[in-house]
Amino acid sequence: MAELLSVLHAGGGLLGSLIYLATVAFLSLAIVGMTGGHFVYTLDDPYIHLALAERIRTWLYGINAGEFASPSSSIVWPLVFVPFAHRAWLQYLPLFLNALCGVATVFLLALCIRRSFGIRGVATDRRARLLVVLLTFALNLPGLTLTGMEHVLQVLLSVCCAYAVLCIMDNVEPPGWTLLAAMVLPSVRYEGFLLTAAVALALSATKRRRDALLLVGCSAMVPLGFSLFLRHLGLPALPLSVLLKSSAQVHAGTSMAARVTGTMLRVALATLRDPERAPELILSVVLGYLARRSRTKRTLFFCALGGFCAATLQTIAGPNGWFFRYEIYALAFTLLLAIALDARTPESVPEEQPADSGAPFRRRPSGLLLVAVAGLAAVYMQPLLATPAAALGIYEQQFQVARLTHDFYKGRVAVNDLGLVSFNRAPTQYVLDLYGLGSLESARVSPLDKTPAWLDHVTREHQIGLVAVYPEWFKQGVPNTWVPLGKLCSPHAPVSAVYSRVIIYATAIDAGNVRRVNEALQKLTGALPPVTTVELHPENSLNTCLAH
Q1: Are residues 400 and 522 in the same domain?
Q2: What is the pLDDT of residues 407-432, one digit of tens each?
Q3: Angle (CA) 245 247 249, round 5°
Q4: Which domain holds residue 178?
Q5: How far is CA 368 from CA 329, 482, 538, in A?
Q6: One domain, residues 297 and 419
Q7: In whole angstroms, what is the distance from residue 391 CA to residue 383 CA?
Q8: Measuring CA to CA, which residue among 509, 497, 511 is closest to residue 543?
Q9: What is the three-class DSSP state of 545?
Q10: CA nearest neighbour of 321 among 20, 30, 43, 26
Q11: For residue range 371-380, what is the model confidence (pLDDT) as tens digits?
């Protein structure tokens, strides 16, 4: 605690947190200005968590009344919102919580830098403070905050895990809160097990094998209990969102091991052509080198080995992409380990070094290190600068579809983007998720098997009257019984959305449905923001729109 208080006064954490908050505030104001006074997250996904929280408050784990579903990849994140699910300001709660987690993360980054370069002397070092600021952007913290997802909390816990390993490097007892963070991390996102295992490996290097086993065992309790809960509801043991976004299908009769193995092979091949995996791949190589260099020192070697394994597995088998958010937790952990290991020369570090001795460590971060972290920060400037445009795309597309289904069409609807349409709607309105996050029925059908016949059958079975989808998502086309009545067009190139237009179809559930959908579209047309248009009765469904 004394060390943490000293960092608060030192300026590294304070300066970094002020710059972080200023960046988040600037981006938020830019979003509100571009959307005509509406705050919208850069992804449609956070609204799924909020919609799930609304249903959990009514004792339903799912999206639609009477149907269980597991649309959230995080166990903990939707539960945080449940006590506030009836509040009008619920939609702003993810932003507020992410900002709190972001500030805490910046201060912990300063704490890690302080320990990496020795206890004495670094607190007032300008390079150390600059390094904290660069790390704030190298980890994309402002951009992650405005996704509204659980990734900022995940990064915060990952930095806690890194600090635990740094303490172990110095033969210092890790604070209890760091081990608690390692225990909770897999409940925030499943891939957090990689870092929990890395902390356990570092503990085992200090002959605390019992503590390491206890940490791993306790960290698995909540995910295992949640899997049992899902099985009790008749759902797969892993959330539908995890299975679908990892390309692991939910076919009955296919073993979990076969699905996961197939997914890992596909992702491993994708790694070779995915530039977003490059930073973690480079860190994997760096940590491999540092592990080899530290092989004569047991503690340093095991700490480096844990980071190397985490970086390699995340690169090969972990999720990546989807607006630069999935890999940041591992990047935070491994980057801090690499900095700390590079600051220690194994030949000059005794096995029992006093905690306050900074002699074998570099007093200041090197210029090369600052350049390397600045280069990483430059990589993540792309999503940071695109943040307002990403939110604008969600506003011009998913937000307007939600207005159509909430305000102008009161019947049952089907979509392939679940978030905003499912959030803050009338509890009796049914939303069919054709992608599958909120529907086990859809999740069990592979994309290639979602034929026009299946789409026609499932929409008739659920009495769906309006369908709003990207037709390209259905490789064999859509049913000819669906009548295309509108093409919702966004004038800007999509950033986090997939396409710049959505096709609105009316189904033949009854004789008057086409008229009702057409009337709803006409009402929406009169209420659209100036730059967004609806082409009524479009001649084609191509990803092109009429000139504005």
Answers
A1: yes
A2: 999 899 999 988 999 999 988 899 99
A3: 110
A4: 2-40+89-241+273-351+359-385
A5: 23, 60, 57
A6: no
A7: 11
A8: 497
A9: coil
A10: 43
A11: 889 988 998 8
Residue type, 69: A
The arithmetic mean of pLDDT across residues 191-215, rounded, is 94
Residue 407 shares a structural domain with residue 371: no
For residue 83, give the DSSP letter. G
- The answer to whether residues 517 and 414 touch, using CB atoms and an 8 Å cutoff, is no
Alpha-helical runs (H) found in 233-342: 240-245, 256-271, 278-293, 298-317, 328-342
The DSSP code sequence of 96-165 is HHHHHHHHHHHHHHHHHHHHHT-SSS-TT-HHHHHHHHHHHHHTTHHHHHTTTSTHHHHHHHHHHHHHHH
SS (H, E, C) 456-496: HHHHHHCCCCEEEECHHHCCCCCCCCCEEEEEEECCCCCCC
0.85 exceeded by pTM: yes
Residues 319 and 448 in one domain: no
Average pLDDT over residues 33-53: 95
227-236, 313-322, 343-352 — which is least confidently predicted?
Answer: 343-352
User: Does one domain contain both 330 and 394?
Assistant: no
Residue positions counted in the chain: 548
